[in-house]
Amino acid sequence: MTRNPDSKPAEPGIVAGNAAVLRRFPFDDTRDLDHARRGFMGTAREAVIRDAGGSTVWDLEAYGFLDAECPPTANPSLWRQSRLSAEHGLFEVVEGIYQVRGFDLSNMTVVEGERGILVIDPLICAETAAAALALYREHRGDRPVTGVLYTHSHVDHFGGVRGVVTDADVEGGVPVIAPEGFLKHAVSENVYAGTAMARRAAYMYGAALPKGERGQIGAGLGQTTSTGTVGLIPPTLDITRTGQTESVDGIRMVFQMTPGTEAPAELNVHFPDHSALCMAENATHNLHNLLTLRGAEVRDPRAWARYLTEAVDLFGDRTDVAFASHHWPVWGREQAVEFLTEQRDVYAYLHDQTLRMLNQGYTPLEIAEEMEMPPALVRAWHTHGYYGSVSHNTKAVYQRYLGWFDGNPAHLWEHPPVESAKRYVEFMGGADEVLRRARESYDSGDFRWVVQVVDHVVFADPDNASARGLQADALEQLGYGSENGTWRNFFLTGALELRHGTVGTPATTVAPDLLRALTIEQLFDAVAIRVDGPRCWDVDICVRWNVTGRDPLTMRLRHGVLTHVSGTGPAAAPPDVRLTLAEDDLRALLLGEASAADLVQEGRLTVDGDLGRLSGLMSLLGEPDPDFAIVTP
Q1: Phi and psi of 390, rounded to 5°?
Q2: Are the CB atoms for 563 and 555 separated by under 8 Å?
């Protein structure tokens, strides 16, 4: 365990609030701990998983401090959840189905077939997936991988695929199964807004925080994200409909499509020969996100609830264990059905009650503050907001139906943060007066108000050390009291950056495999969002790409917008330059992996017209900032 030397102890109000949590909930109920340890077969001898360069990408012993009693600087409910999620090793779910848990944010599941194994959701990076596979083989034998299944399009469920299979394996007949739409969503989510998502994910998972009682203790869904080599092997078999059956290496599977739930492309799968139901990430031991704090498309809680009902209807009377790609399984037919129906009721309640309240005129902030969950659901540990929260999920439902605007015209045309901050501080009597009164609020335990008001001082004058210090202290206290793991990480990372400056983004999911998986249309779109529009309002450049084996593609930069069209119809403007090349060379050129001059010299690019027009276009592309400021201007 490491401790940030700048961290402060918990204030009395936070200590009292955390103590109240201990009294409110049944912490003497050890059933989840029993289930989290059930079927344990062993763990890795070497605790640290490293990449090829020797850097640590995962440490199995990093959370050993969670075995101690919960300190005042952590919410006991989150401490309990983190302790459960930190259990690591190989576990038998039922005979023939095994999970490696605690080796990454997610679980890797192995189903044994006639000759080899089906690997489900091979973690985030190749290094952790390879270590997980090695652990399985140590206990169950050196069986070949005869199939891979991605349950959905988030990177923690496919990024480690190259740790379990190779391109040659797949070309040799090993199927890679995924829900319809998987590749489109996996690529677009991680590339189009990937830089911003990665930066915010660093806050969400607390990647830069020291691990310990005053730092990162987990993320609710799992502990944190690994930092190894992310890869992607495209699917070879799409699942397109509920009820579709497939057999791989003698393993029979029945699929349920669940698009628009936890991911845009997702599925559940039943294993009839094992009476086992894999719920992907649609039913885990927490309230999930309807809009993740790192950013994503808003999810549909109404559809999510209906798919959970459908899962019970399709498989409930044939399921003796339900497991997912996070957390631990639920054993017993009655228990599994109860678990799924309670999960369903959480999402349905949030959806319906948010709509009821917004139709009564409540705003997102008001709904979030007023929403109370049914006591019967609150008593179930697996409905707690360790990853998603009632507060930010209700705001997500509001956003899904009504968007960002709450209807109050006073909020229609507000000043941006810095300009608002300067005016607020001036109206409130200046920075010194704001800070004087904010310290009084801090001493009274009103940390929410402190961070709200001192934020204005920081944005009006980011060099004000007193404001940054007080803001950091207040954010830290909010983190200590949070039941939600991602809220704690956001609060504590904000405090860290206020004290030490931007700590950067430790990992990115914009990996070479993901870029290679872009279609040409997606690649052109990815280039278009890098155009610095104001610099090229008056620029008009048109480039035609004659790509071997496909219709010509015309790219035009005009009015600050880069558009493209296939073919030579009326929408294709007359080009300034025609470029003839292979698709691989086009990709390399647009991704910055090759220069036009080198391709010409090597005879791989033929130019008809002024090549300088392409250079001019490329010079107008901006670079994303992976370390942009969040808690300061």
Answers
A1: -60, -40
A2: yes
Give the DSSP letter of residue 567.
Answer: S
List for the chain the helix, strand, coil content (%; round to 5). 40, 15, 40
Indicate the pTM of the whole model: 0.97
Residue showing tokens 């677009």:
188
Mean pLDDT computed over 365-381: 98
Q: Give dist(CA 531, CA 538) in Å, integer.
A: 13
DSSP string covering 445-496, please?
T-HHHHHHHHHHHHHH-TT-HHHHHHHHHHHHHHHHH-SSHHHHHHHHHHHH
Name the token pair of 622. 């901006």
C-alpha span between 395 and 117 (Å, rounded): 42
- The dihedral region occupied by 149, where left means phi > 0, alpha psi between -120 and 50, and beta the remainder, is beta
Residue type, 285: H
DSSP annotation of 54: S
Residue 376 amino acid letter: A
pLDDT band at 606 (very low <50, low <70, confident <90, very high): very high
Strand, coil or helix: 608: strand
Q: Which residue shows structure tokens 């983004």?
A: 505
* DSSP label of 407: S
Q: Vertex 261, ends 520 and 267: CA angle to 5°?
A: 75
Choose among 553, 556, 555, 552: nearest CA to 540.
556
Residue 385 identity (one-letter amino acid): G
Residue 598 has, within 13 A of its CA and on its CB side, a CA count of 8
Beta-strand pair 330-331/606-609:
unpaired
* C-alpha to C-alpha distance for 54 and 561, rounded to whole angstroms: 44
260 phi-psi bin (left φ>0, alpha ψ -120 to 50, beta other)? left
Distances (CA, A) of 406 to 290, 301, 411, 522: 19, 20, 8, 33
Report the distance separating Cα 99 and Cα 119, nearest Å.
Answer: 10
Structure tokens given for 578 = 């025609």
Identify the CA nearest to 615 among candidates 626, 599, 604: 599
59-113 tens-digit pLDDT: 999 999 999 999 999 999 999 999 999 999 999 999 999 999 999 999 999 999 9
Please return the burial class of 573, using the count of CB atoms within 10 Å of its CB with bins 0-12, 13-18 and 19+. Answer: middle
Token digits of residue 617: 């276009």
Q: How confident is the model at residue 188 (pLDDT cuts 50, 70, 90)?
A: confident
**Distance, CA of 150 to CA of 157 (rounded, Å):** 6
Write the CB contacts of 215 (distance below 8 Å, at least 6 apart in sequence): 2, 3, 4, 7, 206, 209, 492
Whether 411 shows a pLDDT value over 80: the answer reads yes
CA-based end-to-end distance of the chain: 32
Measure the CA–CA gap between 384 and 105, rounded to whole angstroms: 18
